[in-house]
Amino acid sequence: MEYRLIKADPKMFSKYFATYYKNNWFRPSWGDLTKVLADSDDGYWVVLGDDKVAGVYLSDHSIGLVFGIPPYSITTKMIDYVKSYTLKSWNLTESLHAHNVLVEQEIAFRENGFVQVESRQCMMRPTEQLETSMDLHYMDRRPTIEDMSKIVEVFREAYANGPDEREVQVYADDAARYFDIVDPKLLEASSVVYDRTTEEIVGVCLISLWEGLPLVYSIAVLPQHRGLGLASGMLDRALTALEPDYPVLRLFVTTGNQAEQLYRKKGFLSGGEYHHLKYTIE
Which Gene3D superfamilies does its entry note (predicted)? Predict the structure, then answer.
């Protein structure tokens, strides 16, 4: 028998996705998971004979959110078929990307010539009242929109040459978007840290809301001010300020970012890695 791809009904596909795709983002409920793809018509069933054996999301010329449907699992042969189908259908000439590939699926993609671009994970920790402190040479306060240009500069310098490095305009757009949408309660949980001597901002932690729960939107400390507990102090401030209104704090981290060790020390639990992979067309 050969594999086939059949367009899926969005409502049914979203239910299958919510049930069978690992909730590695700690989304609060099954209902929240169904909303992720409820309005999208880019879901497909992978069919073998008369059986639906997997679901796959094909959008923006990329493969994403693959899940097996019991008793079937994701296999090398199945991914080979999906890859061949997309290359032929989209007439790609340079590369094919696969997003949100779970750890247990990675081997099936690698055996089809995909290589890793980056890996990320969502982490979560309960909020609680903590004793917050800061090195005597530093002070922290609530960020304001007047800080935006300095915040962008901190991101640029802190992320330079690392896995999260982006164009400066991306940082500027992210900061502007943050101040446009942030709730005052979440701004109270956010912080900028400045050097008492120079009065320059050297650290930033911005807290936003994602699907009803707080999320670390961005956190960064300038390289020359690391190792002094500034990031830890900003997280303590956030966890303490959020505790009366929210049960948990979530964040995303790119594998290879040194901050991952801090998050684990602070009690953040990982939902597991997921990968961005790429197949280069020769």
Answer: 3.40.630.30
